[in-house]
Amino acid sequence: MKTTAVRIYGKNDLRMESFELPEIKDSEILARVVSDSICMSSYKAAMQGAEHKRVPDDVAENPTIIGHEFCGELVKIGAKWADRYKAGDKFVIQPSINYKGSLDAPGYSFRYIGGDATYIVIPEEVMIMNCLLPYESDNFFCGSLTEPLSCVIGAFHASYHTERGSYEHKMGIKKGGRMAILAGVGPMGLAAIDYIIHCPLRPSVLIVTDIDDARLSRAEQLLTPEEAMKNGVKLTYINTANIESPDEHLKEIAGGAFDDVFVFAPVASVIETADKMLGADGCLNFFAGPTNTQFSAPFNFYNVHYSSTHIVGTSGGNTDDMIESIEMIKESKLTPAILVTHIGGLDSVVETTLNLPRIPGGKKLIYTGISLPLTAISEFEEKGKNDPLFAKLAEIVAKTNGLWNSEAEKYLLENAKPL
């Protein structure tokens, strides 16, 4: 079976190539990838090459396929798994497989499995660790977004609190407490807001900050204070760009210090602000992953000692988090489409990944079987003046207030230029 895939050879060295996949073993599964959402983690891997913890040292000689937020269909099932899976089933994969303690993960470490490919071979460790998950839906793109959603779900589960005199960690945010999400209207921030106002364990006050009015305005339109209030959460969006003491300003708005503060940008000053916002037993959750291995920021250890403030961080979610995201999507409690701002084909992956921090907007969604330049959904109407494909897509997304949807995906897959 021939596949076309984007592979990493080293720092800043990504290549789209066609090559033969090996015949699957009885312990493996052949699958077709339909969609993959490009993650900032893939950019970091591209920047670091073999220095990345998940990328093999010999990647220059044995390149690996990038992309780990993918969804597709199973094609051929090895005999070992014939009673558990069947051809034609839709699937998603939890890339943090943690097989025998290894950091190896699809999208970083394997030669024949990754999201930016047309066909892949799923190795047995994925199934052994229960990381090949069924996905039942009329679309593929929401499946690609279950992985980033699982990352924010995992972060919320990793936060913890204690009671004075007790050493027991009560996992999760403080129910009914004050929460802030700083630098929180990027794609992962939107996912976090969507989850926390719809999950069972919610704060009573949620303040979301950023320094970009346009991004804040879009977030407020997509995840409204009115929707949050329906679930008992008072949601406020604040631009802190010109506020001299943002920590004091935010505490005044919230009515006191914060129980949970999430940091969604690897910026030292943002971490310092978060630290100053914490009340007794306050938890600072550092969600953003820095590329600088020496990244650090001051933290008030007087408050650690006397006020029991603390810090946690996570890198990705686990299988339970992904299952939770799948179930919440199925129950219409989450709206993954709010994360997607761009659509492209496999031939746009190299340029998009290498320039990801410089491309505005949210998630860049790739359909691996088509050829298409990366295109913002907001540009569909303008491009549609000269291209009937985009004219129709503009008409379809207009029905859902400019959000990508199942009908648009179906039309794109049926009418776009095949790769």
Task: Give a short overview.
This protein has helices at residues 40-48, 124-128, 141-144, 146-158, 187-196, 213-222, 225-230, 246-254, 268-277, 301-307, 319-330, 349-354, 380-383, 388-398, 406-415, and strands spanning 2-10, 13-20, 29-38, 64-65, 70-77, 90-93, 119-122, 132-134, 160-161, 170-171, 178-182, 205-210, 234-239, 258-263, 278-286, 310-313, 340-345, 363-367, 375-376.
The percentage of residues in β strands lies in: 15-25%
Number of helices: 15
Shape: globular
| Through-space gap between termini | 16 Å
What is the average per-residue confidence, as pLDDT, rounded to a whole number?
A: 96
User: Low-confidence runs (pLDDT<50, min 5 residues)?
Assistant: none
Q: Helices and strands: which structural class?
A: alpha/beta
For the CA atoms, what is the radius of gyration? Answer: 22 Å
Number of separate strands: 19
Biggest sheet statistics: 8 strands, mixed
Secondary structure elements and pairings:
Blueprint lengths: L1 E9 L2 E8 L8 E10 L1 H9 L15 E2 L4 E8 L12 E4 L25 E4 L1 H5 L3 E3 L6 H4 L1 H13 L1 E2 L8 E2 L6 E5 L4 H10 L8 E6 L2 H10 L2 H6 L3 E6 L6 H9 L3 E6 L4 H10 E9 L14 H7 L2 E4 L5 H12 L9 E6 L3 H6 L8 E5 L7 E2 L3 H4 L4 H11 L7 H10 L4
Helix pairs in contact: 4-5, 4-11, 8-9, 14-15
Give an overview of the whole structure.
The chain is α/β, with parallel strands linked by helices. Helix content is 30%, strand content 24%. The chain has 15 helices and 19 strands. It has helices at 40-48, 124-128, 141-144, 146-158, 187-196, 213-222, 225-230, 246-254, 268-277, 301-307, 319-330, 349-354, 380-383, 388-398, 406-415; strands at 2-10, 13-20, 29-38, 64-65, 70-77, 90-93, 119-122, 132-134, 160-161, 170-171, 178-182, 205-210, 234-239, 258-263, 278-286, 310-313, 340-345, 363-367, 375-376. The strands form 4 sheets. Strands 3, 5, 6, 7, 8, 17, 18 and 19 form an 8-stranded mixed beta sheet that branches. A 6-stranded parallel beta sheet has the order 13-12-11-14-15-16, sandwiched between helices. A hairpin with an 8-residue loop joins β9 (160-161) and β10 (170-171). It is globular, with a radius of gyration of 22 Å.
